């Protein structure tokens, strides 16, 4: 059941006539906060910001509100009414890289400027799922590079990477990439999507109500985004992970059909995150057994979401963020 009726839709104006649409919880509207961390949600492919509001009792929005932590989930560029962004041809930028650049340099400064004074927040944490998690990792990498030049206007202190790995287990990922980006799919038939995202064959990862909600949550996926995560991301993710300097929580499922070798991939992520040594944030991992790709929509949501929000609260309490 969607809890959108408890949330507020908003549109944030961006430079050069752009905009980003988003939803925010009651805590993001003001009042007394327990946590002065602003949580930013980045949804995955074929969903929009409503992904973070879908679970009826343990959505990130619900849990954040229970602890009076402000949360805003944006519609990534090309979703909702958010302005699309074109890759830079001169740098052979991929679709996801262009989103990460735009979110780093344009969207997050605008979001932070819009909410920081009104809420009194002092830090920002990104909660990304799937492709949104991959983009969150790239944003954190971009941020760490910009901090070195003081060309940054917001305090990003941590990222939650939910259900992202280095290579998809989908059979199409082992096939040769289409010669044209436009030849990639723009989503899945709902029965296939439910199997890939929520319930693998023979498993009971999600409720019948959540499966029925799939049509409501479904959004067209840019073909270039599918192309990138399937055939390009596996070739370049390491170049971004080695530069991440903020705290990281990596949550991944074990048992779902989306990623190859979830446990092994988590170990590989940790190796890359720790590669450069000094000046790095802490890396925390959480393996969720018997769960699908869309952990936040599954029976495992309470465990995973509470772990994520609790991690963010601990960073604030211990002064690590």
What attributes characterize this protein structure?
single chain; 321 residues; alpha/beta; Rossmann fold; eight-stranded mixed sheet; 16% strand; globular
Overview of this protein structure:
The chain is 36% helix and 16% strand. It is an alpha/beta fold. It has one domain (4-317): Rossmann fold (3-Layer(aba) Sandwich), CATH 3.40.50.1820. A hairpin with a 5-residue loop joins strand 1 (8-13) and strand 2 (19-24). The longest helix is centred in the middle third of the chain and has 25 residues, at 95-119. It is globular, with a radius of gyration of 18 Å. The two termini are 33 Å apart.
Could you give the topology of this structure?
Blueprint: E1 8-13, E2 19-24, E3 37-42, H1 60-66, E4 71-74, H2 95-119, E5 123-129, H3 131-147, E6 156-162, H4 190-198, H5 208-212, H6 214-217, H7 223-241, E7 247-254, H8 262-273, E8 283-289, H9 301-317
Parallel strand pairs: 3-4, 3-5, 5-6, 6-7, 7-8
Antiparallel strand pairs: 1-2, 2-4
Helix pairs in contact: 2-3, 3-7
**End-to-end C-alpha gap:** 33 Å
Describe the biggest sheet?
8 strands, mixed
- Rg over C-alpha atoms, rounded to the nearest angstrom: 18 Å
Number of H- or I-type helical stretches: 9
Main sheet: strand order: 1-2-4-3-5-6-7-8
The proportion of strand residues reads 15-25%
Helix content: 25-40%
CATH superfamily: Alpha/Beta hydrolase fold, catalytic domain
- In CATH, the topology is named Rossmann fold
Q: Which CATH class?
A: Alpha Beta
- DSSP strand tally: 8
H/E series: EEEHEHEHEHHHHEHEH
Average of pLDDT: 89
Helix/strand class = alpha/beta
Number of structural units classed as domains: 1
Organism: Periconia macrospinosa
Protein name: AB hydrolase-1 domain-containing protein
InterPro entries: AB_hydrolase_1 (IPR000073), AB_hydrolase_fold (IPR029058)
Domain AB hydrolase-1: 42-306
């Amino acid at each position: 059941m969607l809890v959108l009726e408890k949330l507020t839709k908003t549109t944030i104006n961006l430079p050069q006539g752009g905009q980003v649409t988003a939803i925010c919880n009651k805590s993001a509207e003001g009042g007394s906060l327990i946590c002065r961390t602003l949580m930013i949600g980045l949804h995955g492919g074929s969903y929009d910001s409503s992904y973070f509001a879908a679970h009826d009792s343990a959505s990130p929005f619900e849990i954040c509100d229970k602890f009076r932590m402000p949360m805003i989930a944006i519609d990534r560029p090309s979703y909702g009414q958010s302005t699309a962004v074109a890759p830079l041809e001169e740098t052979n930028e991929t679709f996801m890289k262009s989103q990460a650049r735009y979110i780093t340099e344009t969207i997050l400064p605008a979001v932070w400027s819009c909410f920081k004074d009104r809420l009194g927040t002092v830090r920002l944490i990104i909660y990304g799922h799937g492709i949104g998690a991959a983009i969150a990792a790239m944003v954190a990498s971009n941020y760490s590079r910009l901090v070195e030049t003081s060309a940054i206007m917001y305090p990003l202190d941590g990222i939650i990477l939910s259900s992202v790995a280095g290579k998809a287990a989908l059979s199409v990922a082992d096939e040769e990439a289409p010669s044209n980006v436009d030849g990639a799919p723009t989503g899945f038939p709902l029965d296939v999507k439910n199997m890939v995202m929520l319930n693998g064959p023979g498993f009971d990862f999600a409720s019948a109500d959540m499966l029925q909600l799939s049509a409501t949550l479904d959004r067209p996926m840019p073909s270039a985004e599918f192309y990138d995560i399937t055939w390009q991301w596996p070739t370049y993710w390491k170049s971004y992970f080695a530069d991440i300097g903020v705290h990281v929580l990596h949550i991944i499922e074990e048992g779902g059909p989306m990623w190859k070798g979830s446990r092994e991939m988590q170990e590989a992520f940790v190796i890359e995150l720790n590669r450069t040594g000094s000046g790095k944030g802490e890396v925390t991992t959480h393996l969720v057994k018997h769960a699908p790709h869309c952990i936040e929509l599954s029976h495992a949501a309470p465990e995973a979401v509470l772990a994520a929000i609790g991690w963010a609260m601990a960073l604030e309490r211990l002064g690590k963020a």
